Amino acid sequence: MLALWGYFTYGRLAAHEKAHAAMQRGEEMPAKAQTPFPVKVGKGASHCGSGCTLGDIVAEWLVFLVPVIAIWFGYQSIFSEKIFAVWIVDYIFAFAFGVAFQYFTIKPMRNLSPARALVQAVKADAASLTAWQLGMYGFMAIAYFYIFRTVLGAPLRVNSVEFWFMMQIAMLFGFATSYPMNWWLIRRGIKEAM
Q: Same structural domain for residues 103 and 21?
């Protein structure tokens, strides 16, 4: 509900017609001028979260379908729990998607060379994405080790509705841990306000 309210209240200010009309009048775009800073931070955190979410979905299913990948990332040799090896794969995919999303936002807005845009994308997304993943992993650890294993006595498996329901809750935790980092990044001018 909150996301829908945010979209209809502030997200639609970035519509092409409104932005184009403001540019023709030489004014600041309505999305920048009329959106309060805390909402801009929420949009930045959500932008980060989209890369994290997509990366986590792809990585989780990839490791589920090709289990040897978990072994390549330390399951059984470094980690006795498969989930820790999978989190490494999750992070790599989330980072790749997140940097790509930042790159295609930053490059046209700042008119940078591809190499410079890539550096700026990594700067804009690395800390935000890490903060998001830490919040997400924290909740998933509670769900995996405590709620399911200890309280319910059942495994939490990727191919279950319960896993993806827990992952949705974990994404809310990721948003919460990423929000302060996005506040700082946007205030410092490292990340673009949206």
A: no
Q: In Å, what is the CA distance from 167 to each residue of 17, 62, 86?
A: 36, 16, 14
Q: Are residues 10 and 71 in the same domain?
A: no
pTM score, whole prediction: 0.86
34-62 residue pLDDT tens: 778 898 888 888 888 888 899 999 999 99
Same domain, 62 and 138: yes
Distances (CA, A) of 161 to 156, 166, 167: 9, 9, 10
DSSP 76: T
Residues 6 or more apart in contact with residue 186 via CB below 8 angstroms: 37, 40, 41, 44, 192, 193
Neighbour tally for 117: CB within 10 Å:
20
Q: Whole-angstrom Cα distance, residue 51 to residue 38?
A: 21
| Domain membership of residue 22 as a residue range | 1-30
